[in-house]
């Protein structure tokens, strides 16, 4: 073939696009050469935090979740208010609720001490969620890495994109679908409520509703720490049976009408997700496997990669 028939410009353009797309792929080996001790350093930091306060495991998993559902997994939830930045920390779903920021800051400091300016806060959030789960007996999974950090945060999106404890099943399904997650992913991810606690203000209406979807004895027990008014910040475990262990009791609770939040119980209320809840209640290994797979899938939501975003030196501020 004559060289005149070869479109070298097209070949070069194709090669360039392939190279760029390759950069955009997250990889579990992303830091192997640039910061080989990053993951072990993060794991040590997270284990120490969970040993000090077991509830922190739930908080760190939730922090990653609340990050990914707003602008993608870009650590936007960690940014404080600043000129041009409206922090997501004070958005209704996060205010007095999202926590664990100081744990991520400590992990970031530890990593910066060995590899300055290399590991993103977004990746630390993703790894912390995995290590927090493992620290309380939950599943582990291979975290894909290579995310970069945002330079913006959006309180408005945090208030519209994050699911609410009052959401119906249809609304929840739509919210997760908008992020590329199906019903099975949603039910599996909801299983993170096998650990952690909720505030009285979030479940008061449910426990005083006298509804047919709540066990009367369970409601009475929860009412002792959550009166009809006041004590909004009084805490109750999302799983009354084994609140500090990552297991499948959350789903057994739902079948017994003992889901603490409205958004928990709607997963087993005569709708399309009942069969998944039943399956997970009977098969802890299936739940564990599906939870890890769903966390990996969630971690793929709109990451900043390649030349987009930055690597923040401090997670709460732009460099």
Automatic annotation (TrEMBL):
Q: Which cofactor does it need?
A: Ca(2+); heme b
For the ligand (Ca(2+) 1), the binding residues are 67, 70, 72, 74, 76, 88
Q: Where does Ca(2+) 2 bind?
A: 194, 239, 242, 247
**Record-annotated residues binding heme b?**
193
Q: How is the cofactor bound?
A: Binds 2 calcium ions per subunit.
Q: List the disulfide bonds.
A: 35-115, 68-73, 121-315, 200-226
Biological processes, Gene Ontology terms: hydrogen peroxide catabolic process; response to oxidative stress
Residues annotated for substrate binding in this entry: 163
Question: What EC class does the entry list?
Answer: oxidoreductase
Regarding protein family, the annotation reads: Belongs to the peroxidase family. Ascorbate peroxidase subfamily.
PANTHER family, per the entry: PEROXIDASE 5 (PTHR31388:SF115), PEROXIDASE 72-RELATED (PTHR31388)
Spell out the protein name for this chain: Peroxidase
Q: From which source organism is this entry?
A: Abeliophyllum distichum
């Amino acid at each position: 073939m004559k060289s005149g028939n070869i479109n070298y410009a097209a070949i070069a353009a194709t090669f360039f696009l392939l190279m760029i797309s390759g950069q955009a792929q997250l990889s579990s080996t992303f830091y192997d050469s640039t910061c080989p001790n990053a993951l072990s350093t993060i794991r040590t930091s997270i284990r120490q935090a969970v040993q000090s306060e077991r509830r922190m495991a739930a908080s760190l998993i939730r922090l990653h979740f609340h990050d990914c559902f707003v602008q993608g997994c870009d650590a936007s939830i960690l940014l404080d208010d600043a000129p041009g930045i409206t922090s997501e920390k004070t958005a209704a779903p996060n205010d007095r609720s999202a926590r664990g920021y100081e744990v991520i800051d400590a992990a970031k400091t530890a990593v910066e001490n060995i590899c300055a300016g290399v590991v993103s806060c977004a990746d630390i959030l993703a790894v912390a969620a995995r290590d927090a789960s493992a620290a309380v007996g939950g599943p582990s999974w291979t975290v894909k890495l290579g995310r970069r950090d945002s330079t913006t945060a959006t309180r408005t999106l945090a208030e519209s994109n994050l699911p609410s404890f009052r959401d119906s099943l249809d609304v929840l399904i739509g919210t997760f679908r908008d992020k590329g997650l199906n019903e099975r992913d949603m039910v599996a991810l909801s299983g993170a409520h096998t650990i952690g606690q909720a505030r009285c203000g979030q479940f008061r209406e449910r426990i005083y509703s006298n509804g047919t979807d709540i066990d009367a004895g369970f409601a009475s027990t929860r009412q002792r720490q959550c009166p009809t008014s006041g004590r909004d910040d009084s805490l109750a475990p999302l799983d009354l049976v084994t609140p500090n262990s990552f297991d499948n009791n959350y789903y057994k609770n739902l079948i017994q009408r003992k889901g603490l939040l409205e958004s928990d119980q709607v997963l087993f209320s005569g709708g399309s997700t009942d069969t998944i809840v039943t399956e997970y209640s009977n098969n802890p290994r299936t739940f564990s496997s599906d939870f890890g797979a769903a966390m990996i899938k969630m971690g793929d939501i709109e990451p900043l990669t390649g030349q987009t975003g930055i690597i923040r030196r401090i997670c709460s501020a732009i460099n």
